[in-house]
Amino acid sequence: MNSGAPIPARSLLTLTAAVLLLHFWLLGSPARRIHMRETLRAAPFATRSIPLPPVATSAVAPQFPQPHVPDRIAVPVPATRGSVASPPVTKPTIARSAAPPAPATETIGSIARPAPPIAAPNSGAIATRFAIPASIRLEYAVTAQVKHERTQGISQLSWQHDGDIYEAQLEIRAPSLPARLQHSSGRITTEGLAPLRFSEKTRTEQATHFERDSQRLSFSNNRPAAALLAGAQDRVSVLLQLSAMLAGEPHKYPAGSSVMIQTATTSEAEPWTFTIQGEERLELPGGTLVALKLVRPPKRQFDQQVEVWLAPGLDYVPVRLRLTQPNGDWVDQQWSSTDRR
Q1: Which of 55, 247, 266, 282 is at a distance of 20 to 30 A from 238, taking alpha carbons?
Q2: Residue 282 belongs to a domain with what CATH number?
Q3: What mean pLDDT is reported for the chain?
Q4: Could you report the per-residue pLDDT of 237-286, keeping only the tens digit for each?
């Protein structure tokens, strides 16, 4: 068949109709619809801005309620330079417990001071009048017991003053006992005796200084300083201070009452509490007389017990003095004679 021969018109119409039918079939098939839907889904979604008309603003800003902040957690903010300082912020109110009650007082010489935490014994009345005994020298007969052996000796209490300055000295001499010399010096005030220096000498001398400007007691043996309390005395002056207190107002010190006096040795200062036990009739080497007995019992294991008898008929000067050691040793000094100066 010759390829260049023309196609008959009938055959051409038939071919054209077949092609059109194929196209219609392809366009209407489910596969084609799915493909078109997927294409539509994958297409991007474009947006555009739509200009809005301006909103009219009010001349007054809306007021929003502010949360309430309690004063106790408010923190003041410092104002910056050029700004108006903020009003002060109220500080928190803190509930405080009631103040503790004021401590009780106890007598030290003639002055009342706050009592220590431990209750002190009855300190009796506060001395307001002192009768300083006249200058005198008292001699004593000494009996001592040392390690269960008795010994005899002598002692002397010398008391001198001019109404302003005083000196007191107590010296003991007895076999089996080291010679002991105690000396006190100071001033006489409206509160009785005010020592300035106390010394004690056996083999060597040690001293205690009453530093009244700094209100302390210092010791020459380098022991720690102690506070100087009102009415403080030393081991010698305390005997004459008791005399002046009881002679000045004897009715204030009945039997059973007590008085507390800070008393310094050459190494420490402690409150000594003397209890008035009452009058006793004494038979002494110097004669028979009535004396008022006072006792300072030991407070600690190694404290001495001090017993002193004051004679109203001799301006309440000590006519007997007995010291008892913790181990049972004792020294008893009994008045034998008087030398008035």
Answers
A1: 282
A2: 2.50.20
A3: 78
A4: 999 999 999 999 999 999 999 999 999 999 999 999 999 999 999 999 99
| 27 belongs to a structural domain | no
Token representation of residue 176: 């089996």
Q: Is residue 229 part of a domain?
A: yes
Residue-wise pLDDT for 304-314, tens only, equals 999 999 999 99
Residue with tokens 């010399």: 181
In the numeric block, which tokens belong to residue 60? 């007054």
Is residue 98, in this structure, part of any structural domain at all?
A: no
Q: How far is CA 288 from CA 280, 285, 334, in A?
A: 11, 8, 11
CA 127, 133, 137, 142 torsion-angle sign? negative
**C-alpha span between 54 and 48 (Å, rounded):** 19
Is residue 69 domain-resident? no
Tokens of 341: 């100066």
Domain coverage including residue 147: 106-340
Residue 278 · residue 310 · CB < 8 Å: no
- Residue 4's contacts (CB-CB under 8 Å, 6 or more residues apart) are none
E strand intervals along the chain: 105-108, 111-114, 136-146, 149-161, 165-174, 177-189, 192-201, 205-211, 216-219, 226-227, 233-234, 258-264, 269-284, 287-296, 305-311, 317-324, 330-340
Number of folded domains that form the chain: 1
